[in-house]
Amino acid sequence: MEVSVKIRREEKSVILDEGSTINDLLKKLGINRETVLIRRNGKLCIEEEVLNDRDSVEIIPAISGG
Amino acid sequence: MIILKQDHVKKILQHARSEAPKESCGILVGEWGDVKIVKEVHLCTNVDAYPIARYTIDPKEILKIMDHANEKALEIVGFFHSHPSGGSYPSIIDSERASWSGASYIIISVPSGTISSWIWDERKGKFIEEELKVT
User: Fold this and answer.
1) Pick from B84, B87, B79: which is nearest to B115 by CA?
2) A-B interface: how many C-beta pairs under 8 angstroms?
């Protein structure tokens, strides 16, 4: 299946196996779950959620420093 | 280069002073071309567990401001935070936690009132100073 992913200003399509979760997507992209917010089809979501074909996922990095 | 208005700088400095000794923080919304033009400065909540020397912008506020910017055909062009007792240059923690490559990280020093802008270069893994113009 294919999902569209937006990270900051960058948008791309990602191919995943059927039944993949948000966690699987993050692993594939090499993103640490602790440092981002995730919206699926416009709604905040948790990493166990199973993705569907054509879903749109927005990954928003936390803004932090010292 | 990033361009701010004098009022924007005043707003950032006032927020920084009012939040001291905690670090203050916020989000810059504007137009992102070859030059970034700041249109709005959004003061945010520092929800870090150690606000004296760290900042973390409230995630709910990030989402709200992102959606607000999209509605106005603008975008997040950068952020600001303050150093209550340090200079206006990135700390080690700033580098460790930087995550928005290409965005402008504006840092204001409360003691001196100086303000500088830095771009996070993800590939090089470091901040590069950016020209900051106040109009």
Assistant:
1) B87
2) 60
Residues of B in contact with A37 (CB under 8 A): 59, 62-63
CA dist B62 and B103 (Å) reads 14
Residue of B nearest to A32 (CA): B99
Residue at A56 is within a domain: yes
pLDDT tens per residue across span B2-45: 999 999 999 999 999 999 999 999 999 999 999 999 999 999 99
DSSP state letter for B128? E
Domain count, chain A: 1
B56 contacts in A (CB within 8 Å)? 62-64
Residue A52: domain span: 2-61
User: Could you report the per-residue pLDDT of A4-58, keeping only the tens digit for each?
Assistant: 999 988 999 999 999 999 999 999 999 988 889 999 999 999 889 999 999 999 9
Its ipTM equals: 0.89
A66 part of a folded domain: no
Residue A65 and residue B55: Cβ atoms within 8 Å? yes
Q: What angle do CA B92, B99, B5 make, to 5 degrees?
A: 90
